[in-house]
Amino acid sequence: MEIYVVEPGDTVDLIASYYGIPVSAIVYTNQLTYPYALAIGQALLINTDIPSSPSYPASINGYAYPFIEDTVLNETLPYLTTLSVFSYGFTTEGDLISPALDDSFMILAAQNAGVAPILTLTPFGPDGQFNNFLITTLVNNEAVKQNLLANLLAAIQEKGFRGVDIDFEYILPADRIPFADFVSDTRNYLSPYGYHVSVALAPKIADDQPGLLYQGKDYGLLGAAADSVLLMTYEWGYTYGPPMAVAPINKVREVVEYAVTRIDPAKIDLGIPNYGYDWTLPYIRGTSAARPIGNVEAVQIAVSVGAVIQFDETAMSPFFRYEENGVQHEVWFEDVRSLREKFSLLPTYGLRGIGYWQIMRFFRANWLLLADTFLIR
Asked: What DSSP string describes 200-262?
């Protein structure tokens, strides 16, 4: 695979002629829509048909909701090692709460594709938000904990899951050690049955990093407690924040460099966002809210408005600005250039694999580049 960045005057026909490949190959790989107009600065993945020989083994996980489209799920599964179903909750008594929508089709599809389905456990309250009261109740009450563990095992065995991913956020600082103990207890409870236990970690760069996202997550303790961890290395650019890259490589690298000093790199999965944001300008803190968009959609917007896609060399991320109905917009997203930079961190630091949040939108170029880069375990 090669990456070509569109220049003024380029057309799909000219690029295909240059590489000696069919136009249809570029259209298919990059999900171009008729009449196949391009944006200046757009990064195209070019399949040169020269066999590659990826040598770095990587575990690949994708999170998905039970309302994922069948076609998206089935096209993505060949590139995954595990599929994390989002999500299961629990009550203050430790009773497990299944997703509102039936997830059995996802589990069956994963099994048929040789992909391990994973139960994602989250402490969502009645409002659908992370609830640290639920977390406190669980991790500090042995009876509640044992009830939840028994319910988890029953659900895993009944539905055919192969493990649990513990995705708890906004953990109170006082629950830092009890939470790590809960992860350890979950692993000890499930490992005799051969089930994998992972935990999601907010993107820290220091032990004493302030903020409710970080203080309850002890990298050293959790790395020892779980079979693997996911670094949630995304959301620097987020819905209510100012326009910026969702996962700037300089910030992602800082997290990885801290993480490998506290956790065995062979246990670490790198989080990668499969989305971007469209902000309206000017950004007003407390009022502005960016619209989440897919990476393919971002390029389609640039093409439709005639925007030039730029590339930030510090964040190693693409972005562009445009005007619509008198309103200025700024868009940041992921393309094959930004993904290639993130992929390079795995062999550099000896990481275990990758976790995508989330796979609800199909981005073919990402998966083809991934398969060209790694031996999927």
From this structure: EE---SSTT--STTTTT--HHHHHHHSSEEEE----SS-TTS-S--SS-HHHHHHHHHHHTTT
